[in-house]
Structure prediction request, 452 residues.
Amino acid sequence: MNSGEYASATGQADNGYICRWNVAESSFLSPQNAKAHRKSMKHFVLFIAASAIQNAGYAAPTGQDEPLTKRLENGLGRTPALGYNNWNNGGCTHATADAALKVANLLISLGLKDAGYQYLNIDDCWASKARNSTGHLVADPSKWPQGIKAVADKVHDMGLKFGLYGDAGIMTCAGYPGSQGHEVQDAKTLASWGIDYWKHDACYLPCATGGTPPQCWDSRSITKEYYATMREALAGAGRPILFSMCQWGRDSVWTWGKDYGNSWRMSNDIANTWSSLAEIAANAAGMAQYAAPGGFNDLDMLQVGNGGLNENEERAHVGLWAIAKSPILIGTDLSKLKQSTLNILKNKALIAINQDSLGKAATYFRPSGKPAPVNGRLYPYWAGPLSDGVVVGLVASDGAATLAFNFADVPGLGSGSWNWSEVFTGTTGTGTSISAALASHDMRVYKITKAT
Ligand code: GAL
Prediction:
């Protein structure tokens, strides 16, 4: 490989990335899904046995011949979504009007709204367990005494946007009504409530290996057609609604997601650990070329603030998500945020990189003399283009390290002198190389521009 090229995990130029079926099968660890995960592992084992015979001759079920080439042209998500989602902090427990309004107030009082976090998204468990007599979704009256619209209106009055969660299958992962067969009706309901963002999950969808399991572990699970149906329903609902696809990277969604949604989860659920976020980021490096204005790889909601990461790791978590152009959805109790976490989340220069109008995601580059990336393992050297320069990320993925590179080795740069500024330390400089001594799992993010 020549210097100045992006590197894939095999050490080839990046367009040689091999889409792996197993992005992170073992890290589907949200509290709500732990049980489902154990169940689903049985399907996984069955799949392994079945796939050898089925792989070549698999026939898609009928109904899949919708226009796959159609692009999502809803004008939304030109940059990755920034906001909040309640799921990573207690699962079902905070899907209530009270909790939503508390979050809205905190987004404002903590300065997060001003920093760009505009979406306030409520995840699973907001609905009543049954639809009403006309088949409409209804909010659980004990959680939303005045209904969803009253809360969405308040949230809008506060200058924020309001998001909700649902599912492409017959039930959500936590057992609330899914939209399968009700897509048009549900999209209209969402529009009438003033919903701005819809996360569409994939539990209880038909599986190629049979049945409608909580999660289908078959890489050929048939999600496309259901996401196309919801895309069309939302497009006809009469309100711009950002379409956030959540089918955990099935069917190599990163290769087709942009025609369907504004973002697509590319992994199973993030756990509150360094190894989980490192694994997700490592896989995202191989999907960078699929991110563009209107559609982004979604690396999942943040775990910062939830106690499983130290400050260095929190920096790397948000830093990696930002340069990978992932949506950044805070997933912790905002009333208990440490100042250090808040500072990371509000880092202006980092958010500007994530929100850069070019919308191109960073990926690995290999400085001369450094070992090649290894598939599935987080590599220290990242770079990507910006509308007005280049971003370089350095992450001490394997423990404390001095990470160094020459600008000439960075794609988009070259020999000569470059100006750089580092977003976390605020340090700046001009030169031909950088060397940074980092504590274990810490990260530095450099914006690099031509020296004048
Ligand atoms: C999972 C999803 C999580 C969360 C959860 C709710 O499928 O990946 O982000 O939404 O369902 O039940």
